[in-house]
Design goal:
The complex is a heterodimer of chains A (342) and B (125). Chain A is mainly α and 342 residues long. Chain A has 12 helices and no strands. In chain A, helix 3 packs antiparallel against helix 4, helix 3 runs antiparallel to helix 12 and helix 5 runs antiparallel to helix 7. The longest helix of chain B has 25 residues. The chains are: A mainly alpha (342), B mainly alpha (125).
């Protein structure tokens, strides 16, 4: 008396039972979080979720599921060459699935749609612009200190390096550099110093929370003097996200050598409420699913490794791997509408 | 690794495959059509359930298995469905309640964001 199936199949089904709970923990949490978060990001401009790529991947997994079931049928009929052929197709389709997923991930990474990196409010979006500009400034300044064009006690301190950069046009050429090399650095230093000024100006306005265009200077001394001159109860005009957008747009579109670099490295400020939890849910669900795809490929790879010596001893293996693969397909059947369509 | 229990069930797997492809197309069609969001959600999830049933019944052969499948799958299904239901009162209904400090501080920005989205989504599905 007992369950009328082989032990290996029983084991696989028990394992799949735990897998159901594993994935529904994520999917269930996602549904609950989403229901509780009014304003969840859904637009393509926010999420860069590509329905077409998701649809193609769904099709790829369905074809692979069909191939697996036919491979199992062929194993039962002892047609091992046919089974091997279908398992090869399944494995190739798994690679295709992961390739498309890679393209999708790259799109997210390129747009910085990553957990913990998405500004959720206007103030966070403004700070992110300043941070990305700072990253550029540090990178540009590092080129001078690294090449020995500027010698500083603290090469990472951009505030002390900036005046040295400003004075580079009248500085003496270091012996390690040729005339043409030094001239190139001198020419570039004009734009780099201006970039530093622009970044510093933005940062000061963000810290003081005063308008970029209505309050010309937000240097601590200037800001405090202006604030003291205000009548009681009055406030200096606050910084607005639209101003930062305009400021950045000017840096990106004006005719100067750093326009292209800023365009590619500094994102337009784009606050996205619940963006980080969206990114967490997306990556944890699709990431764990992708890991399962890789495990499936290993299972099929072990069968394919047998080559022409594949025989009936592997029939149970193919059946159980197939059950696992269908489960991977099942998970995607729910992830596709939940993440890509709804 | 082998046993002699691999019965052939005479399933037309190709037909199941085409049904699954058709269902996927239907999901995308529901997304493209301009329908109320709630209707789209219900239809798309109904199609997903139909696809899942097809895979489980025919590709995973559950249609031809004995009653052991209920013994094995019922507890996990109950737990899986129970989790969201258990979380819902705590998180689903009040993830960011109005009294939460971040919502109080961001109230204006959230309202502005939602207004922008409402304007941007106007006329779109």
């Amino acid at each position: 008396m007992g369950i009328p199936i082989p032990n290996s199949k029983l084991g696989m089904w028990l394992f799949l039972g735990t897998e159901i709970m594993f994935f529904t923990a994520f999917i269930g949490s996602y549904i609950v979080l989403r229901l509780g978060s009014n304003g969840w990001p859904t637009r393509y401009e926010d999420t860069h979720i590509n329905v077409l790529l998701g649809g193609i991947n769904t099709f790829v997994l369905i074809v692979s599921s069909y191939c697996v079931v036919v491979a199992h049928e062929a194993m039962a009929q002892k047609n091992f060459a046919r089974a091997r052929g279908y398992l090869w197709v399944t494995t190739i389709l798994a690679f295709v699935f992961l390739g498309i997923k890679g393209v999708e991930y790259k799109g997210k990474i390129d747009h910085d749609i990553l957990p913990g990196r998405i500004p959720e409010t206007s103030s966070q979006a403004m700070v992110k612009v300043a941070d990305q500009l700072e990253e550029l400034v540090r990178e540009r300044f590092h080129a001078y200190t690294h090449a020995g064009v500027i010698t500083a006690e603290r090469p990472a301190d951009v505030v002390t390096i900036a005046p040295l950069l400003q004075a580079l046009s009248t500085a003496v050429r270091p012996s390690a550099l040729t005339d043409s090399e030094f001239k190139r650095y001198q020419e570039a230093s004009v734009a780099d110093y201006e970039l530093f000024q622009k970044w510093m100006n933005l940062k000061q306005h963000i810290v003081a929370d005063v308008s970029l265009y209505e309050v010309e200077s937000a240097l601590p001394a200037d800001y405090l003097a202006k604030r003291d001159a205000l009548p009681e109860g009055a406030r200096l005009p606050a910084l607005k996200l639209e101003e930062v957008r305009r400021y950045l747009n000017d840096l990106k579109t004006r005719d100067w050598p750093l326009a292209g670099l800023i365009n590619s490295r500094v994102f337009d400020p784009h606050p996205m409420v619940y963006g980080n939890i969206f990114a967490s849910c997306y990556f944890i669900m699709t990431g764990f699913h992708a890991i399962h795809v890789i495990v499936g490929m290993i299972l099929f790879g072990m069968v394919l490794k047998q080559g022409s010596s594949l025989n009936e001893r592997w029939t149970d293996w193919v059946e159980n791997s197939g059950l696992y693969w269908h489960f991977v397909d099942l998970v995607w059947i729910f992830l596709f509408p939940l993440l890509y369509i709804i | 690794m082998s046993h002699d229990d691999h019965q052939t069930h005479h399933v037309n797997y190709l037909a199941v495959f085409f049904v699954l492809c058709g269902c996927t197309g239907l999901s995308v069609l529901f997304d493209v059509l301009s329908m109320p969001k709630g209707v789209t959600i219900v239809l798309v999830l109904a199609v997903a359930c139909a696809k899942a049933m097809s895979v489980m019944m025919y590709f995973m052969h559950l249609k031809f298995e004995g009653n052991w499948k209920y013994v094995l799958l019922a507890p996990t299904t109950i737990l899986a469905v129970g989790l969201p239901i258990a979380l819902f009162p705590d998180i689903g209904r009040s993830y960011y309640i109005n009294a939460a400090p971040q919502v109080t501080a961001w109230a204006d920005e959230v309202a502005e964001y939602e207004r922008e989205h409402a304007a941007a989504d106007g006329g779109a599905h």
